[in-house]
Amino acid sequence: MKLVTIMPMVCKVSSRDVKVLNAEVIVGAQCGSAVLRGAHVFAPGVLSAPKFMKVGDVVSVFSDVEGRCTRGAKDFQGKKVYLGNGVCVMNRCDIFCAEGPVRGVAIRMEDALYQSPSFDGVLPNEMFLQNLPSVVVGHVLGPRPGERILDMCAAPGGKTTHIAALMANQGVVVALDKIKSKVEKISENADALRLHCIKAHCYNSIQAVCSDLTHDSRTADTPPFPEESFDRILLDAPCSGLGQRPNMAFNYSVKEVCSYQPLQRKLFRTAVQLLKKGGVLVYSTCTVTLSENEEQVAWALKTFPCLTLEPQEPHLGSQGMPGAELSCDQRRLLQRFRPELSWHGAPDSQTSEDLLLKANTDTIGFFIAKFSKR
Fold it and tell me: The pTM is what?
């Protein structure tokens, strides 16, 4: 069984006094978020750099949070967030070369504003880094050796590989995603971890139910599939992602945020059709909105009388939020994770297990619901 490592997205403030320098490098919002997670600055993420910047220069790194910095600019006066200081390992002319964006580390972070360890490239054939709630999802699904399991929105494959590991690489895990490059990444991760039970396909999960009643592919691993083909299904649905942290790249409109609920319901309908009677369906998101979480659970219970809300093990998060016409008992069966950390009592009065569980409650925003099908 492969090891799936937990990496809660918690950044600790540096004990050193990190000061802003005169030489400034501006990076994109996604690059800035990666730096907060412990990454160095890679060349494609650099937007602006001093005119004569060369290898060995010490610079301050800022993130352009509004996406207004022009690539190749020599300075930038827009809204930016300070990330820390680093040493250049590329010249400016190499970063902004005429042949197009280069790859590799451009600035090695030496004094980050927040100290988060980087696990990039650490034992890539033995572990896949995930946040705590993402690890919990695999255990809640409860895969067993020999089962047929569907991961409907699988990229990049963290939960998929965890599921395969939990079932000891015995059985079949079908992983679907509609973007080819992401499917290739799933296959790469599965191969690196030597998880041969994973079958990844580029396919729209909404269309994964076979309409040909004479076609029987219960033993095949290629979509579309007949109804009731899978013992367990994970629907880690596309969502607004408002629980992800740290993140500087959010620029969603209200309309965009509201667009996910109909998509999630289409996927949910397919999931119910593909699930065997007696099977388990786990629905999860990495967002915090009521409409994409508790309201979806309430809708599912009303729309599909065959579904029953089930207890979750382990249950490390808080219960569901009120406001979606779910009873108190139903909300207790849900799990919500959120960015928070509260200590009850003096730390030295806690057992190590108590401290671990309390510390782990400070995670990304995440939601999990577990159903069974009668």
Answer: 0.82
